Amino acid sequence: MIRLATVASVMATLPSVAPKPVVDTTDDSQTNYWANRLNISHEDLFAAIEKVGPSMAAIRRHLGK
Question: Are 62 and 52 in contact (CB under 8 A)?
Fold first, then answer.
């Protein structure tokens, strides 16, 4: 017999690999990830963070992405 699992139970067992919704500017791996993901330079990423804060939603709105 096949036993089905709920999506929530499967997701609860997986390690969290999703990036945080807020950029930690002291973590090079996060800034590298987001600069690459947004296809912008580190300087542009830090300029956006300086202007609108570290929230990815705010950064995306600011960059129009």
Answer: yes
Q: What is the pLDDT of residues 6-27, one digit of tens each?
A: 877 766 666 565 566 899 899 8
3, part of any domain: no
> Domain total for the chain?
1
What is the pTM for the complete model shown? Answer: 0.67
Residue 64, by phi and psi: left (phi above 0), alpha (psi -120 to 50) or beta? left
**What is Dmax (Cα atoms) for the chain?**
57
Residue 22 lies in domain: 15-63
